[in-house]
Every structure is written in C-alpha cells, then in structure tokens.
Write a structure and sequence with these properties.
The chain has 729 residues and is an alpha+beta fold. 52% of the residues lie in helices and 18% in strands. The longest helix is centred in the N-terminal third of the chain and has 35 residues.
C-alpha cells in the first residue's frame, strides 16, 4: 500500500470535489481517497499491485478533471502556472459573461422588437459557447460516468432556458414572445464569479513545499575514490558517500562530519540564532549552512529520509487534508441536484395532468422556473465571499490567512503551543548587562578593548556585543584567535585578553569568586542569560549577560488567552533550565526544552489525538512539521519564509498579541458563512414551491422564468451583501 498526494486541476465547487473523490474511491485497489478543494489536491491510499497512477489519472480525466501524477514534486512551478492560467480564464469569462448579461437586461428596456430579440439570441449563443462550455463538457462526462453535480444543474437550467427561448423565437409568428436569454447568461455569470472568488481565496498552496525543497542544494561536491571532489546531482548520491561542504554553502544531506570543524547555522531547522560548533563525529542536517571552514560529511540519510525531507512530507500531507467546512457542502451537493431534478419533473407532470387548459405550456414554464430558481449560485457564493471579506479584513489588521480551514477551526481553539525563539522572543541575542568587576577600569576603556576584539568575529554573539557597545576607538591587534566552543583570545596594548565562558578562563588559570558565580547564576535565573567573561593580564575585568529578550506585550497576551480558558504550552530547542525559567516568568505552566523539530511535531500530534484543538505559533523551518500537525498553524511574519508559507495564518508584524484578534475574526467569518448557507437553503425552501406553482390554485401566485432569474440574482446579491456587512464588525 502507498499513500500519495497529487495536484488536482479543474475543481471549482464542492460538487466537483465530491465527484472526483467518489471516482477515486470506486477504483479497484484504492483503499481511501480524499479530495481537498482548498488545496486543489487529492490524497490517495492505494495498492500498487491493483492500480497505478496512470489508472487514477485516466479515471479523473473521464470525470472532467486533471490529476497530475508526473513530476508532481519537481515541477511545482509548472503547476503554479497551470493554476494561474485557470484562474485567469475564470476571471476573464466572468467579466465577459457579466457584461453580456447586463447588456441583455438593458436591451430589454430599450426596444422590444424582433431585431433586438435576434441580437439577444446571437449574444447569448456566443456567450454560452465561450463561457459555459466548461459546465456543459463536465456535465456530459459526468452523465456518462454515472454521476451528477452542480455542473449538471447549471447546464440543465441554462440550456432549458436557452432552448425554450430559441424555440419561442423561431416558432412565434405574430406577437414577440417573452424570452429568457438573460437568465441563462446571468446564471453562468454568477457561478463563474463564485468560482473565481473561491480560487483567489485558496491561494498558492504549493509555495511552502517549493521553498522547503529549495533549501536542499541540487548539486553537491562528492569526494571520489581518488580523493578529488567532483560535482554531481544530489539525486545521484548513495548512503556512505562523502561530500565536501565549503564555507557559506548549504549542507545537502543528513550526515556525520568526517573531517573539519566549523560553526553551522541550523536556525532554519532548530530555531536557534546562535550557530553551533560541529566537528568530527558531529551530526549535521540538510538545509543548514556551513559558516566558516570546510567540512567533509558522510551521508546517513538522503532525499525524503533527511530531517528536511521528513518535514517537507509532513507539511505536504497536512496541507492536503480536507477543510472541515467542505464536508457540509459536499453532503448537500450530493443530494441537491437529484432532488431539484426530481422536483422539476414532478412539477411538469402535475401541471400536465391537473393544470387544465394551457397546462402543457404552464408545466414547461414552471419546470424551467424550478431549475432556474434553484440554481446553486447563492450556495456557491456563500463560502468564498465570506472568506474573501474575512481574509481582507484580517490583512488590513496585519494577519494573513491562507485558506478556509483556519477560519473554521480557529474559533474552537482551546490550546496554544508557542515556539520560543522568534515567537515569544526577539530571535537574536542581545547584550543585556555589562558588569564591571574591576572598579579601577573605566567603562570606556573596557568597551574600547572588548569592541576591537569582537570586531574580528562573525559570530552572532560578537554582533550582539558590538551593537550593545556602540562605536569604539580602533586599536591594532597583534594576535587574534577564535577558540571553538569557548571564546576569543587576543593580544593588544601589550596584554593577553580573553573573552569567553568559564571553561576558557579555567584553562588560563583564572578562577571565579563566589560573588562572580552568584552574579552569573542570577543572570541565568532572572534574565535567562548566558554569562560571558572578559579578562586581561590574568585578571577578570567584567561579566557580560547575553540573552534573547521576550517581545513586548507577551505577558498581556498570556493573560488574555488564559482569561479565555485557553491552555498554554511552550516548546524550544533551548536547554530545559532556560525554557523552564521562561515558562515560570511568563506564567506558562507547560514548558519543555531540548526539543527537536520532529519532537515538536510528535508533541503537537499527541495533544491533537487527546482531543485538544491546538494552535501552534512558530517562526522557523524547525516549526514547519509542528505547524503542519497542529489544528491551526500560525507563523510570525518576521521569521522564516518556510514557516510562513506552510502555516495557515501569518502575523505579518510578528506581534503575537494579534492572536486573539485572529481567533475573533475566525468566529465572525464562520458565523457569516453559516448565515450565508442558511439563507441559501431557506431561499430554496421558500422559492422552489413558489416557482413550481404550488400556491397558484389558492392565490394565483406564479413565477415566470424571467422573475425566477431575477430572484436567483437577488439571492446571490444578498449573500454578497451579508458578507460585506461583516467588514464593519
């Protein structure tokens, strides 16, 4: 058995998704299939011995859609182009059809003549051929494939209205008949508009995968048997190969360092801003950046099996899951078309049998009216219009929402999991304090010596110290040495200077007093800061507190979420002691440190499986798999592009205080969607009996197809207006 996700093109409504899913499930060898309209993808769990990708694609093609099974991972750019072309065609056809529809309505008021009627016939024919052919071709294929969808209802209503009008136009001889060309055109126009709005709301869901995959170099330098480096494709590597990674290059595979020593920036994978020292025997990961010297890495995992590859796969599968709100529309779509067709035929039969004089004509008109008035325009517009308004409102407030899924589930969130670095913290080290131990040394003199030593280093901590010290007078250094994992050693002004941790000072025979140790412990406990020491001539001169600071307003956010009854968790790759201190200081009860990317994802998964509705906030690639596992994933706009693209929502400013507003906008948006769907259903429940002439025997009330088309248009407009009303809330 294998489980794969495939892009699925040509989906425009819930009926399309339900039909495509049904086609896949009915194939021999398919264990499970799920079609996601929001991501335009299909997840299929099938037996390769009983079916194949080509069989899946052929079955979908017969239903009128396109399942992309070739180069689905490598050719994301081509898929994006296809989807953009599809949206562009929808937009152009919607504009054209709306323009023709309004023109036809205007012509009705200008002059009621045979010449105008024939002009309406030509315009309608051309419009239906150009803009409606997609509906007709899909409905035709679905009919022969044994299914019906919204395309069937759209096709029948427009073709019956068009055919009836054509028959009247070319059979009437004396009085000019009342024609219904504009009804057929406006039905197509509103459905196309709904499809276009929905397509724009879904967004580009392949961007996250493409950017994640882009972290792995496509070409690597492999050391051959002769010991020389040769450039080959990363896909030609085998386990055990040794690759050469030069300074500034990304590591292409997971492996162990076989030769060399260097600082490696793993911030995209671990979320930590400070590069880590990697030497012989150390583990390194695909996507991380070698900062300094050259490394030789022996491969231990390739492609999908790397840490990065597993993150990509988790994001891919999670993004392909179906949005909950679509299941409601799918169930309605499955029943809607057969019921309306049956009601239309029933209406025609009852009028023909019991309608008396002119019953045949009245039965035909009533049957057409039922088809037209029940056209699912309002149903098709209910979700995308509310989503578009909700997304636009959120964007104005600095929250980017990717699709409908986050809008539906955010309102029920009862658990929030925070990443620390870049989410609750600023994401970069800062010099918080410079305590002068030797009171005979002035701050200016100390800053001048320290600044000139740190200026030679590219380490993030050195940059933090320089930013904290500001401009210093330059001094010539006679010697400068970087001691990996410990600090810096330098000769200047005739003295030997040391900047580093306690281990470096111990090597040089400099002991730390009880007062200094107490102060250092205070930095760790109160500021979650790492202490560094500055000494020269064998004497300690100063202590530096380096730490990543919490963002403004974090404590207010924690209180707000707690007041709403939301349970809070904190996960980080930092040490457990630092993470515990952060949790205690902020009031977050559950705080876990030393967490790797897959550990984060597993932690989230366990919470979800226990029944919690979990929102995950993160900012790095290391958060991508955890974001994918969460019920709601929220990324910081100031963080990694990958986390942003893989998340369902992004706070562009990085201000996590906007999280409560995101939850509120979700509640308002889903409430609007439910109102729209309710109105769409109630409209049909009230309008269909009227269209069928159920009240005619008692009250004489009947509807013409023209009035029915107007009511259909008004129902769609009412849905849009209700969505626009949400903008003021």
């Amino acid at each position: 058995m294998t489980k794969e996700e495939y892009p699925l093109l040509g989906l425009h409504c819930a009926g399309c998704a339900a039909r495509a899913e049904q086609v896949l499930r009915e194939l021999e060898g398919v264990h499970e299939a799920s079609v996601n309209l929001a991501t335009a993808s299909a997840q299929v769990h099938y037996d390769e011995k009983l079916t194949s990708e080509q069989t899946l694609a052929q079955a979908i093609a017969r239903a009128g859609y396109q399942l992309v099974v070739e180069q689905r991972y490598q050719d994301d750019e081509a898929l994006d182009t296809l989807r953009e072309q599809e949206l562009k065609t929808l937009r152009n056809n919607a504009i054209l059809t709306l323009a023709v529809g309004f023109l036809l309505m205007a012509l009705m008021w200008v002059e009621h003549s045979w010449r105008i009627a024939h002009i309406e016939f030509v315009l309608t024919t051309l419009t239906l051929v150009i803009s409606g052919r997609g509906f007709y071709s899909r409905a035709w294929r679905q009919l022969f494939d044994g299914g019906m969808g919204m395309d069937t209802l759209v096709s029948l209503s427009t073709l019956v209205a068009y055919g009836y009008s054509v028959a009247l136009l070319f059979t009437s001889q004396d009085e000019i008949p009342h024609l219904y060309f504009e009804a057929a055109v406006m039905i197509i126009a509103f459905v196309l508009l709904g499809k276009y709005l929905e397509g724009r709301a879904k967004g580009n869901t392949t961007e996250a995968i493409r950017r994640l995959a882009g972290l792995q170099p496509k070409q690597v330098l492999r050391r051959n048997l002769a010991g020389k480096a040769e450039e080959i494709s990363v896909y030609d590597l085998i386990l055990g190969d040794c690759i050469v990674v030069r300074a500034g290059e990304r590591i292409a595979v997971d492996g162990l360092v076989a030769e060399g020593e260097s600082y490696v920036d793993e911030s995209m994978l671990t979320g930590e801003a400070i590069p880590q020292l990697r030497s012989m025997g150390s583990e390194v990961f695909a996507g991380s950046i070698n900062q300094n010297g050259s490394l030789v890495v022996r491969t231990t995992a390739l492609h999908r099996d790397t840490l990065l590859g597993r993150i990509i796969e988790r994001v891919r599968m999670a993004q392909g899951s179906k949005a909950p709100i679509q299941r409601i529309v799918d169930r309605v779509a499955a029943l809607f078309v057969p019921i309306i067709l049956a009601l239309s035929l029933l209406t025609f039969g009852i009028w023909t049998l019991f309608g008396g004089q002119g019953a045949l004509e009245q039965g035909l008109v009533s049957a057409i009216t039922v088809l037209i008035i029940a056209c699912p325009c309002a149903l098709g517009l209910a979700t995308p219009t509310a989503i578009m308004v909700g997304i636009g409102r959120a964007a104005e407030e600095g929250i980017l929402i990717k699709d409908a899924e986050s809008l539906e589930i955010a309102r029920s969130i009862d658990t929030v999991v925070f990443d620390k670095t870049g989410t609750l913290s600023e994401g970069k080290p800062r010099l918080l304090d410079l305590y002068i131990v030797d009171k005979s040394c002035s701050h200016e003199e100390l800053a001048r010596r320290l600044g000139n030593i740190e200026r030679r280093s590219e380490h993030p901590i050195a940059r933090a110290i320089l930013e904290g010290l500001g401009e210093v007078e330059p001094i010539m250094l006679s010697q400068w040495e970087n001691i990996p994992g410990r600090g810096l050693r330098a000769e200047l002004l005739g003295s030997r200077h040391l900047v580093g941790n306690a281990a470096l000072l111990a090597e040089e025979g400099i002991s730390l007093s009880a007062e200094v140790l107490s102060l250092s412990q205070g930095y760790q406990e109160k500021l979650s800061a790492s202490p560094l020491y500055f000494a020269w001539d064998g004497q300690l001169r100063a202590i530096l507190a380096i730490a990543d600071q919490e963002k403004a307003g974090i404590r207010e956010l924690v209180r707000t979420l707690k007041d709403r009854g939301i349970e809070l968790h904190l996960l980080s790759g930092d040490s457990q002691s630092i993470v515990s201190q952060w949790g205690e200081r902020l009031g977050i009860e559950y705080a876990l440190g030393n967490v790797r990317p897959n550990d984060k994802a597993d932690y989230i998964q366990r919470l979800v499986q226990s029944g919690r509705r979990v929102a995950m906030l993160g900012d790095g690639i290391n958060d991508s798999s955890a974001l994918a596992e969460a019920t709601l994933s929220v990324a910081m706009g100031t963080g990694s592009d990958i986390a942003i693209e893989s998340a369902q929502a992004t706070i562009t400013s990085g201000d996590v205080r906007l999280l409560p507003r995101l939850l509120e906008l979700s509640r308002l948006t889903i409430r609007t969607i439910h109102q729209n769907l309710f109105w769409a259903f109630v409209y049909n429940l009230l309008a269909i009996p009227l269209a069928a002439g159920a009240f005619a025997p008692c009250t004489g009330w009947t509807l013409t197809p023209m009035l029915a088309s107007l009511m259909m248009a008004l129902s769609s407009i009412s849905v849009v207006l209700n969505s626009l009303r949400f903008k003021r809330q």
